[in-house]
Design brief:
- By secondary structure, this protein is mainly α.
- The chain is globular.
- It has helices at 7-33, 35-42, 46-100, 104-136, 141-164, 169-190, 206-215, 220-250, 254-275, 277-283, 285-305, 309-323, 326-334, 341-370, 372-388.
- It has 15 helices and no strands.
- It starts with 6 loop residues before the first helix and ends in a 16-residue tail after the last helix.
- This is Permease of the major facilitator superfamily protein.
């Protein structure tokens, strides 16, 4: 499916989806940056925070799983608008349950709405990003993910300011929620209406669309792409949760150098996401994924085994470079066939996000028995498996980028 779009219409669609990716990152960092304030306001312990995170993660996975059904029923245009409203309502409930009417159940309800909205939005916005790739005939999905990273940086910065200025959680989350709803309404205007069916091969009835939405789970390629995304999700999620601790404690660098190492990782990942598209267009998805997987494995091993802190930082940078494109390129590969893009992106993303959400806690449990740095060898092994599975990202015959 290729839309008839003017150059200006395509450009505004692209800007709208850039903004949606940024808003998603902004929302997640808004919640994450206020976790200490929420913990203090509700007087809860880390175990309770863990249960809240589990509830949000479960809702996110449900959202990922049903996203293809929502796309089939409503289309990505209306679906993205509604999910941005849902996650914004979730932010409101989180704020209300923290400050206005302190209530753990209200915060949990808010996190469930927030997780569901963001999980569903993640698939829908990636489907639209992949559709824009079809139109521009260039690999730009990594750039969309870079805008998501930009949103997390903005959200974290606002969160640091709000916490430092002792601004309560509710006014903070309320302002961000309203801003996201306004942005959603504006973006809706510039996202074209698209059908996810082909007039030649897919019926338009609801039952037929439901069957199409579930069909990806019967395709072996989905699971192999899931391995690609699982390994890279472990690499990213594991770094976010454990890299700083590994530097500060196991490598005895202290808190400041731990935070600095995580910053190096994040910058390396974001830079490659911004500039990596032309490399993919030049060398192809499969070759790029294999080189990056090898880079990540080398970086992780160097991080674990380095005898001094400068080499640890080099390892963190290589780790970030290697982990940068696996997830967006997996999404792009899953969306090769526009008629089935939502179903395949939903299925592959679900596998990846289960790893992203559940992987770090599992690593934490293992690390209590064998130590943190030895545990990171598991991430290196999964990234290596991701590299071996990268052949599944080869573009499907008759779709965009078949020269790759």
């Amino acid at each position: 499916m290729t839309l008839e779009l003017t150059a200006s219409r395509l450009w505004t669609w692209r800007l709208a989806v850039f903004a949606i990716f940024t808003a998603s990152g902004l929302s997640i960092a808004t919640w994450a940056s206020r976790v200490p304030s929420i913990k203090a306001a509700l007087d809860i312990d880390n175990a309770t925070i863990g249960l809240l995170l589990l509830g949000m993660g479960a809702a996110s996975i449900v959202g990922l799983s049903v996203a293809s059904l929502i796309a089939a029923r409503l289309g990505t245009r209306l679906g993205m608008l509604l999910m941005m409203v849902v996650l914004s309502v979730g932010l409101f409930f989180i704020g209300i349950g923290t400050d206005v009417t302190p209530s753990l159940p209200l915060v949990l309800i808010g996190l469930a709405l927030f997780g569901f909205g963001n999980g569903t939005l993640d698939v829908l916005m990636n489907v639209d990003g992949a559709a824009i790739e079809v139109e521009v005939k260039k690999t730009i999905l990594p750039l969309f993910h870079a805008f998501f990273s930009l949103g997390t940086v903005i959200g974290a910065g606002i969160g640091v300011f709000a916490a430092g200025a002792k601004i309560a959680v509710f006014p903070h989350t309320a302002v961000i929620a309203i801003a996201i709803v306004v942005l959603a309404v504006v973006a809706y205007r510039y996202v074209p209406r698209r059908e996810f069916t082909s007039p030649d091969d897919v019926p338009t009835g609801w039952r037929a669309r439901l069957s199409t939405a579930l069909s990806a789970w019967r395709e072996p390629r989905t699971y192999v792409l899931g391995i690609v995304m699982l390994g890279m999700a472990f690499a990213e999620g594991g770094a976010n949760d454990w890299l700083a601790l590994g530097v500060s404690e196991d490598h005895e660098g202290g808190f400041a150098l731990g935070a600095a190492a995580l910053t190096v990782f994040s910058i390396a990942m974001t830079v490659v996401r911004v500039f990596g598209g032309p490399l993919v267009d030049r060398f192809g998805r499969v070759a790029t994924l294999r080189v990056l997987a090898a880079t990540a494995v080398v970086g992780i091993l160097l991080f674990i085994l380095a005898p001094n802190l400068p080499l640890v930082f080099v390892g963190a940078a290589l780790w970030g470079i290697g982990a940068s494109l696996g997830f967006p390129l997996g999404m792009s590969a899953a969306a090769d066939d526009p008629a089935r893009a939502a179903a395949r992106v939903s299925a592959a993303a679900t596998i990846g996000y289960v790893a992203f959400l559940c992987g770090p806690p599992v690593l934490g449990l293992i690390s209590t028995h064998i130590g943190l740095l030895p545990t990171l060898f598991i991430i290196a092994a999964l990234v290596a498996a991701s590299g071996f599975a990268s052949g599944a990202a080869k573009p499907l015959p008759g779709t965009r980028g078949t020269s790759h």
